[in-house]
Amino acid sequence: AISHIHASTICTRTQEPFYSYHWVDDHISVVRAFPGVCEESERSLRLAMAIVFGPSAINETKLTGWHQRLKVLGLEFDSGTRTVSMPYSKITKARQKVHATMNATAITRTEYRSLLGSLRHVATCVRPARTFLQRLRAAEVGHPRSHRVPVTSQVIDALMWWELILQSASLNGVPLQYFTDSQVPDCTVYVDASNYGLAAIDVSRCKYLTYAFTAEEQDLISRFQDGDPNGFDINFRELLNLAFALFAWGSEWSHPRSCIPTHVRFRIDNTSAVAWQSRFSSRNPRARTILRLLALWEVTYNLHFSSQHVAGRSIKLADMGSRITQDPAVANSFRKLTSSWTATQYRRAFAEWTELCATIGIDPYCGSVGQQTFIDTITRFIFQAYERGLRSSSISGLLHGVQHFLSAAGAPSVFGHAQIRMLLKGIRRLDSLPSSKAPIASSGKAFQWFALRDEDVAILDGQGNPTIRPDQSDKVAIRLRGSKANQHGSPTNRILARSGHPYICPVFGALCLKHFRGPAQPSTPIALFVTPDGQQHTVSAARIKFALQHAAHRLGLQSKDYTSHSLRAGGATQMYRRGISALTISSTDTGYRTRSRFTED
């Protein structure tokens, strides 16, 4: 389109002007449905057409009215649901062309171009489908224009991928927000690759994945560095890391009942890998295979991938994880930093399971074990844990750790039999009542020893220097003088980086606390604020409850449905089952527990 430079038309009802001066074949106006705005937008378009082309340029039969659902460029846009979808007739037409091509030995170039055009139209709605066009385009290159294009085995293989894409539910409606770069990710994964292995870190769920290259793979790396074009370069290894993470965690990220895909953002320190994933295209044959797998998994698991390039120092933990086989000191540091993470706990559970299987004489992955032997082994594993004094919740955690490894080997679910479920329910009834812990919240207005002080919180920049500027803040360091598990032990230091969310972020929270507490003493609690009359008050649970209920009332919601009470384990479980992202659950639960701990009750 050729834009005509002209002053914008001013709308009297909104501050956003109309830019109607564009020379295009079709002009589609999209405005907010405020009173009178649609009429003024249409008047602006008519005025622009009359000024540029004359009064006779306006053809009333070519002008349509205002609609929430509109078919534009072969796609159906719905401004009410804010989605774009493929018409069913277009999907049926593409399927017919794919089936006709697969049953033919050769087709004309015109038919082949028509097939590419239909599939390219589908790729505008289903972004991962772009990677499957690359092989089809390559099959056309090198053939004379007058000759027919042969349907080779490579073409049939690519069309089989397209059959799976055309059955995807994503064609029924894709949120418009995923056509922009401003959406907030539901999950952020830090990945890194080296000459020794791969590592993926899911900080929000406290999970990590490491893989050490085999001798054969290290030989491929050495030969590539010596000049052998085998494609096993660092760019491919970074992309391979994404496939490992998705293979391990894709089903956990998936929310099949939700119409909005789960947004997973990968943070990589390699610009080529970011470009390959964003375009779903690469000249590396190995990378093209990985991209096709990523595209298929994105559609299968109802996910949306995006990649962001970051500096290497921002993914230091992932860098350490990819080198744990190179340096024992690095492996020891990585093990200490992730000692309480889920992956470590899963490995401990599977180690206990492996020890039990060794005493019985069966394969721990239960590859050739009968169903009854499998159930009896699980029952014995549960009884051993119960005899050690573990509660039903802890036993379920052990079984989840065992299930994590058995699922990768294709073994059946440990919770799939009624006998196991009944046994766990019976143990739950025998659990003793939980004993009360030491109080973790203050009961009066006076300062308590366990309150988080201002001097215990430091905001650091990328170099590790203290700062209070939001644009330079990179992480926050917290010193816990007495934790819930060790109230009389030595202080524990924690460093929290930015979460990627604009509000649910530890750095943002620390900046707010530092800003609103005013010129108070460093030894006072950090959860202070100064009133307009200069009085200092603590951020109590009652104040938080009042603020939540007041905001709910202003939004027209029931105030009694909102409070500052902490989430229980069952509540978090229900949120997870209903499709709420793990980052939201973790951030909300942590925020409530921290608030009840470091403020007065």
UniProtKB/TrEMBL annotation:
Coiled coil ranges (UniProt) are none
Write out the entry's keywords from A to Z.
DNA recombination, DNA-binding
Q: Which CDD domains match?
A: RNase_HI_RT_DIRS1
Q: Which molecular function GO terms apply here?
A: DNA binding
Q: Which InterPro entries match?
A: DNA_brk_join_enz, Hepadnavirus_pol/RT, Integrase-like_cat_sf, Integrase_recombinase_N
Q: Does the keyword DNA-binding apply?
A: yes
BP-aspect Gene Ontology terms: DNA integration; DNA recombination
Tell me what this protein is called. Tyr recombinase domain-containing protein
Q: Which organism is it from?
A: Phytophthora sojae (strain P6497) (Soybean stem and root rot agent)
